[in-house]
Amino acid sequence: MTQRRVAIVAGGRTPFVKSGKTFKNLSPLALAKHTVNGLMDRHQVIPDKIEAISVGVVVPEPGKPNLAREIVLETGLPASIEAQTVSSYCISGLRSITIIADAIASGRIDAGIAAGVESLSQADINYFKEPSSGLLMGEHMELTIKDWVIPRVDQDRLALNSHRNAIESRKRLAEQIFPLLGEDSDSGPRTDTSLKALTELQPAFGEAGTLTAGNSSPVSDGAAAVLLMSEERASLEQRVPLAFIRGMEYSALHPREGLFMAPALAVPRLLKHTGLKLSDIDLIEIHEAFAAVPLANARAWEQGWKEAPTGRVDWNRVNVCGSSIAIGHPWSATGGRIVTTVAYEMTRRDVKYGLVSICAAGAMAGAFLLERN
C-alpha cells in the first residue's frame, strides 16, 4: 500500500459546557449529530463523498454500543459507509482521527470524518477512578506532583494563563463552534479570575494536596469533529488544507509510574521518528487534564525520562488559545478540539509545525505532529 498525505481540511465542535448545565439532557448521539451536521453544513461537504466515520466516546449511550453507526443513519451520510466507535479514555478523539487517517494514507478511502463526544452529565464517580488502582484521577495526579515536585503556584499560574489565552482567543474559537441550545461559546473561561483568587481555593484531594477546582479541567459536555481527506481529494474539491498529519505516536506505561506521564514517552519518540527537535515546533498543544500535567511532562521532556531529552519548552508557544482548564474537557471530544484549534492557528499564524500531546487514564498518551507546506 502506498502512503498518501492526510490533510486536515476543517474541524468544529459544540461549545464545551459544564456538566449538569445546558446540555445535561442531551444524549451523546444528539451532541455528535449536531456537530457532524454542523461540520458538513458549514464546510459544504457532500455526504456521498464521505467514505468512513469514526467516533470516540468513553461514557456509552445505553442501547447504542456503536454510536458511529447511529450517527450515520441519522445525519444523511451514506448508509453504506464504514462506521466504528472507539473508546480509549481521553485519547479517544485522537484514536478516531488515527483510524480515518490510516485508511486515507493507505489509499483505502479518500475522505472521512473523525469525531468524539462525551456527555459527562451522565457519568458516575466510577468513570473518574483508575480501575487498576481504585484511586481517583486527582489522587493519582497528587502522587505525580510529589514525585516531580510541582509547586502549587506554578500550577495556578498555568491555569491563569489558560483562562487569559482562551479569553483573548474567544472570537477566533467562536469560528470553530456550532451553537447549540442558545450556547455559542464555552462556559469555562473566566474573565474575573486572578492568581490571588486561584491561590485561595481549597485543595480538592486532601489538605496537603495542591490540586483545586481552579487548576484542574472542569467536567464538561460536548462534541468535536474533524474532516480529513487525501491531498489529492482536497485538491480535486478545491479545498486548501489547514495542515497535514506528519506523524502520530502512542505510548503507555504502568499507572504506578504516573497515570498522566505517558506523554513523556510519546513526544520524544514522535520527534525522533520525524527528525525534528522541540525547538523546531512553532505551536505546542498540551492537554491540561490538570495544570500539573503539562508541567510534569515538560520537565520530563527537558530532563529526559525513559527517552532522550528534547530540549527546553518555550511556554510562549504552548496552548496559545487556552486549553482544557479554561475551555473544558469532554473526554473524547478533546482530541478533535485540540487538533482543530492548532490547525486553524497554524494557518492564521502561517507557521510550519504544530505538536499535539494528550494524556489519558490507563497511563496512555497520544501525540500528533501537524505540518503545513
From TrEMBL:
E.C. number: 2.3.1.16
Keywords, comma-separated and alphabetical: Acyltransferase, Membrane, Transferase, Transmembrane, Transmembrane helix
Matching InterPro entries: Thiolase, Thiolase-like, Thiolase_acyl_enz_int_AS, Thiolase_AS, Thiolase_C, Thiolase_N
Top-level class of the enzyme under EC nomenclature: transferase
SUPFAM superfamilies: Thiolase-like
All copies of domain Thiolase N-terminal, residue ranges: 6-232
Single GO term (MF): acetyl-CoA C-acyltransferase activity
Any one GO CC term of the record: cytosol
Superkingdom of the organism of origin: Bacteria
Active site, per annotation: C90 (acyl-thioester intermediate), H329 (proton acceptor), C359 (proton acceptor)
UniProt-recorded name of the protein: 3-ketoacyl-CoA thiolase FadI
Organism encoding this protein: Candidatus Moanibacter tarae
